[in-house]
Fold:
Amino acid sequence: MKVRVDPQRCQGHTPRAIIAPRIFRLSDIDGSSSVVCEVVPPDQDEPVHEAAHSCRERAIPVEETQNGSKRGIDHEKVREATA
Amino acid sequence: MSDGTVTDDDPKKKYHYHFDRHTPEYRSQFKTITEELLQKCPVAWSDTYGGHWVASSSHAVFELARCPHISNDHDMNGERRGYQGIAIPQRPSMARGGMLEMDAPEHRWYRNVLNPYMSPAAVKRWEPFINEVVRASIDEKIEEGRIDFVDDLANVTPAVLTMAMLGIPLKKWTLYSEPMHASIYTPEHSPEAARVTEQTYEMGTDLLANVNEIRQNPRPGLVNALINMRIDGEPAPEIEILGMLMLIIGGGFDTTTALTAHALEWLGQNPQQREVLSKQRDTLLDSATEEFLRFYTPAPGDGRTFSDDVELDGIHFKEGERLYISWAMANRDPLVFPDPNKIILDRKGNRHFSFGLGAHRCIGSNVGRTVFKSMLTTVLDRMPDYRCDPENTVHYETIGVIQGMRHLPATFTPSTRLGRGLDETLDKLQKICAEQELARPITERRESARID
Structure:
């Protein structure tokens, strides 16, 4: 699984770093977020998913790789579900 | 601008819903009104207060709050397009509401000044200071077995911390706290209104005096930062500095108070959940904090103005039309929050709207969270069996601006003090603020406060 933070969207709400502190780092200056490691270790799958689902700005695309096939970003699905 | 005429295919008629968030009924009927709007009319047109749109669904709120064609600008002197900022209806005021009533790029200039004082890392340095204020506030009441959680705790800590961050003497907190709190809950025509106006005037006078004093003899803090900021080489206009300071004070005081009081009231009504939260705080405190934020949404919404013609889901909005974005109602949208009217302390995927969205996201969100957690855990530790007194609990009559409380009295098993009372503690903390220069930005001071 891979994860990144969309800097255009991130407004530094913080929860991702509370939920998955091993993956996300916050800027000391303005609290905006970046990823410490893009490739998520398996034991961090759950907190990363929770962080992505908790992101108010939908700024954490998660890309899953399973058996070589990629599953898409789930943000669009979330947005469709809330439409 | 719309000419105000209403035709059959006019969206204002099609999506008409009478909405008045400043009435007591909006508070008492909040759940019903919210469900009705979410189901039938997630974007509605209301004729109240000169007419405005109301966005309540999570989808509409998400899209509109982040829309680049929506303005926060408050054009006080008719120099731009005459937009009215974030208050619906417009409230009489001397200055714009700081950067909350500015658009890019102006908004960003001011925000960048505040960021290094309010980032998560910057706020973390204040934790020992916050804990000490909370400890002293509780110690004032711990032997009595009786406390008003609003007056004696939740009003105190956010106000004292805000003073410290600004660089204003800590003991002045009451001078600021009283009018900030009272101006929200006192109706315009109440006999109390004149007294509140007078207190607000005294606060403004003191604030100006502090700005002038800090200009002469600089001391670290947000006041100093705003005085020293430069826009194209020029200092910020005095009136904008005052607007920014009032925004910081307004944002820093009543909101955290409201959140804390509501959470303590609910935990008092649900003692089993209180025990679970206390015992499992390592895993539950963060999610519970976000859940109380979602459910009680201290600042329930904001006004905006369409700065261009915009379409969303087939609804056409016109430039100049006003919009109310309801964080509080979006927070009850079942499409994002299953069982939205239930408090679930370990709720997952809680992407609540309580700090707003987009560029204007509450800059004090980490201050609020940190102060709230300190007050809550200290109460759980030192007054674990508290019982609130519902007969003497006073909620704000209306929730149009802040969903707050005036009083939350409680009783508990008395115990012993751990340290000095509040006055002496504030004296000590004032010295520490000066010696350790706690109010410096994170770029200048990285260490945590040391309280001996």
